[in-house]
Amino acid sequence: MTARLHPRLRAGALLVAATLAVMLAGCSLSGPGIGSDQTLPAASTAPTVLTSPRAPTGSVRIVLRLSNGLATATLDDTPAAREFAAMLPLQLKLHDPMGQAKSGPLPRPIDATGLERVFHPAVGEIYYSAPSSTFAIFYDDLGQSIPDPGLVRLGVLDSGLDAIDSAGNRFTVQIDLASHTRF
User: Which residues pair with 73 in a beta bridge?
Assistant: First the structure.
């Protein structure tokens, strides 16, 4: 004997399936400009981004898509972080030269004049190096200090530190504002 769904339940199930299909179809990254040998994941593998309990008013949430997963972060409410957020969306080619941070050049410099400098970066934090116009995410603490003029902190990872750590030595990351990311 075959179980039959009530017509309203069947219509509801079809509506849910159609909605999920439309949402997932709009979440994949494709097209020219990805610029990497690695494929970035579709949003169907992404966890839902929730407002961070650490996110102060005025801060900006971002999503980082890597070939092996996602990371989310909250940018600081500073002039440098706001200038970085204004560049988004971005695709950056990152590498791991020292075994403690994934880093790569930004398309243009950020004005770091007069901003507080960090000489001992923390694991799970995002920084900017003004002399080289470099974006960096620290995933390991090797006890090393950064030489003068130091780094400018842009924000902190909320999730995905393991994805950053295991992303490899050379990869492309897609960085978007979380408010502009469909899940």
Answer: 62, 157
C-alpha to C-alpha distance for 36 and 48, rounded to whole angstroms: 26
CA 140 from chain center: how many Å? Answer: 17
What is the pTM assigned to this prediction? 0.69
Question: CA 35 to CA 82: how far, in whole Å?
Answer: 26
Averages of pLDDT over runs of 10 residues in the chain (183 residues) are 41 33 32 38 38 54 95 96 96 94 97 95 97 96 90 98 95 91 47
The per-residue DSSP string of 11-68 comes to: HHHHHHHHHHHHHHHTT---STT--SSSPPPPGGGPPPP---TT--TT-EEEEEEETT
Q: What share of the chain is helix, strand, coil (3-state, %, to 5)?
A: 20, 30, 50
> Which one, of 69, 92, 72, lies nearest residue 163 by Cα?
69
For 37, 83, 111, 123, the CA distances from 128, given in Å and listed in that order, are 25, 11, 10, 14
d(CA 93, CA 171): 6
